[in-house]
Design brief:
Blueprint (H helix, E strand, L loop, with lengths): L1 E7 L4 E7 L5 E5 L6 H10 L2 E6 L11 H8 L2 E5 L16 E4 L4 E4 L2 E7 L8 E7 L8 E5 L2 E2 L2 E2 L4 H6 L4 H16 L7 E4 L17 E2 H7 L1 H4 L3 H9 L9 H7 L14 E2 L4 H9 L3 E5 L3 H5 L7 E2 L6 H8 L5 E6 L4 H10 L5 E6 L13 E3 L1 H9 L4 E4 L3 H6 L6 E2 L2 H4 L12 E4 L5 H11 L4 E4 L2 H7 L6
Parallel strand pairs: 3-4, 4-5, 5-6, 10-13, 15-19, 16-17, 16-18, 18-19, 20-24, 21-22, 21-23, 23-24
Antiparallel strand pairs: 1-2, 2-3, 7-8, 8-9, 9-10, 11-12, 13-14
Helix pairs in contact: 4-7
Length: 468
Amino acid sequence: MFLNYFYDASLAQASYMVACQATGEAAVIDPARNIEEYLEVAREKGFQIVAAVETHIHADFVSGVAELGRRTGATIYHSLEGVDNGGYEWNSDLPVKGLRDQDTIQLGKVKLRAVHTPGHTPEHMSYELTDEAVADRPMGVFTGDFVFVGDVGRPDLLEKAVGVAGSAEEGARQMFSSIQRFKKYADYVQIWPGHGSGSACGKALGAVPTSSVGYERLFNPAFQLTEETDFIDFLLDGQPEPPAYFAKMKEVNKTGMTPVSQVPYPVEMQLVGDKVAELAQDNQTMVIDTRSIQSFATGSIPKTINLPYPDMFVEWLGRLANYKKTLYLIAEPHQFAHLRNIMLRMGMDNLQGFFATSVIDSATKLLTYETQSPSEVDKKRKHDDIQVLDVRYADEWNEAHIPNAKHIPLPELAERTDELTRDKPVAVHCRSGKRSAIASSILINHGFHVINVEGGFINWQQENLEAT
């Protein structure tokens, strides 16, 4: 038997290839949209990819099962369970086969058994892997977004991202039941999850790529609770806000997205800085500057937004970018290919072109903003010389905040700038100073005098400044 692990660090997403070396038949579990890495391994090993296996309708990346089906003829295996989620709506040209609980996929002597594990989504399937050449019981389970290392999948995405009322609590109840069944596996059974640390599909995913049932039974917090009510409260509490792009992923992954070969390749644009500013001024266009926070603060082309790469690019691209707008990126030329790949995996086929960072030098007008320490900002706040803006999420604000600060979560800021006044500088902060840098780029484009609070609320509290 052959087993290979693939990991996309930008999206914290894992996929797997399993094959029977005797027959050369291979399957890919939860492939990403750019399938070249799977094809390369298959060529090197002499395998034929005959199965593209889907654990569930993904919310955080474009699934590659449709791309594999078109390019290789591999059969797409998907769940027929949990139809209350709407189910898949595959295009008629794709080779598909629906699976029920306990159905199997046979690859020579390698067997994958579908196990319905609802909770994260109603249709979710995990897949037991058994090497029948040497064993009569499973070595491990591909758990998708069901069980992670140190965590389990969040059950609230259908409600928060898609608007299915009441599905979060029902999903938590299903998750509790799925975990009780999962605990019956032997301790040695390995766990191969679909995500790692940094994914928004859970709230506390571990950074270790794999685990075992025995280890999770001992140390995974979700495995410790034995009462359903306590478990539901635990699982629903503290889940992060889902990125806005999750709703789009749920939509496209039901049917399979546009073939990559049909997506135009973005070109390097040859415009001067002032022309880029004109482009960014268009309401149907978004120009994203991927330079560092420090570089952007000292000079940026008007109407561009700062999403620093790699630190904050993926998360906030998913939270702020618009699928209906034409997108352009300002970046280092050696980053173009990787950035395009990230956007393909997020379904952002509306990327039109790139500008090299040197385009900044040709602009006749640049915008800037200040960075000041919490103590400097506090002095001005007490003299009523500034307005303080908190762009953290509601749960962070409720825990503690600066007195008389204005609260507008970052994802809502662009639509709510009219709640601020332009007769005073805006001192903007988040938890650490990163989200507030993005907020600063939005605010200077709306004509505000902006101060980014250095180190955010963390530094504010460390300096023992007033909070309520």
